Amino acid sequence: MNKNLMNSILLIVGIFLFTIGRADEGEQLFKTTCAACHTIGKGRLVGPDLSGINQKRSKEWLVPFIKSSTTVIKSGDTDAVAIFKEYNSIMMPDVAYSEAQIVSILNYISSDISDGAQEQTVITDILSGTTLENIKVGLLLFSGKQPFTNEGPACVGCHKVKDERIFSSGTLAKDLTESYDILGSAGIAAVIKSPPFPVMTAAFTNHDLTEEEVINVTAYLKNVSEERYYQRPTDFSTTFAFFGLVVFVTIFMSTVLLYFKRKKFPVNREILDRPSKVIN
Ligand code: HEC
Ligand code: HEC
Fold this sequence. Notes:
By secondary structure, the protein is mainly alpha-helical.
């Protein structure tokens, strides 16, 4: 086996074991898996602010919900259904953590309360101050025409969007055309920075986007969401105009060609001439 590959695998396994073995496991897990969508005392993100969650809900409710919120919601649990509806039916991804690991996360959330209480930060939109330039660069990055600084894969490899500027795209993952409506800029940025989805996490491990790149791609996805109603009509009219022109030019050119050919080389004459030469 390739030596470099072996080394990388050993390193990844090493880092993994190191992370798992750490005392502040709850904090680690929270930051890698939950922080994309939740804050502790810093306000609503994709999901609700989790400060005080241990007072609001029982451990018996929280552990199964965190493990698989979809299962709890499907079971018809009133609280779960209510919070799911309140958050526009965004699915919280299931996690494969043990009960002990989930409890460590909940303990971390309790211990972090002090941190949040004094810090009533108003979350400013990361897109305030962005311009058309950000959207343009975001399109280039999203579609892979411009590589990411840390060599992360182009989003278009897995995702598609309704955008005539992009010709081919992946269908492995979700269509992101409306993601901005659901997640908002904070949510999109959070998902890009620490994706809560295993496939995407794997793709961007050690290939983090820079802060600037996160903003550009988020600005682009906002633009896609806003422009989506205009995509279809423009798409069709330009396509029709283009094909119309092609058909017109083709017919026109063949007419012209036929016309000149007939004038210069009358077929009948040639055939008539040939045998007369042979006879002579
Ligand atoms: C992709 C975004 C996302 C990720 C990642 C995520 N959550 Fe959530 N979470 C949500 C949303 C959205 C809700 C609102 C309920 C719903 O839509 O299912 C929620 C609800 C919750 C609730 C219920 C809150 C309440 O007020 O009842 C808890 C507890 C929770 N999440 C904990 C976690 C923990 C712990 C993690 C990490 C292991 C995590 N979540 C990861 C999006 C996420
Ligand atoms: C290796 C494949 C892969 C790549 C590359 C990738 N993603 Fe994802 N992404 C996923 C998967 C898988 C999901 C989980 C949702 C699903 O199953 O479609 C996801 C989910 C998301 C979501 C949440 C969608 C929603 O509405 O819940 C966003 C936003 C997102 N990706 C943005 C991006 C952006 C921006 C890039 C480029 C920087 C990117 N992704 C690159 C695989 C990928």
